[in-house]
Amino acid sequence: MSTSKIVLADGTEIVMPGGAALGYMMARYDSREAMLADWEKLTPENLKTVQIKTDDTVTGNYSDLVLESETSTVADDGSVSTVYKIREKTELELLRERLAAVEGDMSGLNRALEGGN
Questions:
Q1: Are 5 and 53 within 8 A, CB to CB?
Q2: What is the number of other CB atoms lying within 10 angstroms of the CB of residue 93?
Q3: pTM (2 decimals)?
């Protein structure tokens, strides 16, 4: 059986023994703590550039992703099965980010022009 991984922007690798595809990524953990450590890595910064590898071969390169949801099931032995639903940002989300960046740049420019910092 092949093993897939998602490689985040900071180099973190999350193993997906059941395979990985955007929209459905299943991971298995020995404990809640191990699951939470990976979940906390799924930040907007780490989802800016992502690779999916299957048996160490890159099968997908993605950018501007967002964690849509996470669902976990805890077994009697304390192990955790988690499904991450990750998707590409919509054009509207990307436009909003660009607009916010431009507004921030303009705010800084206005302060500089007014003699502020």
A1: yes
A2: 12
A3: 0.78
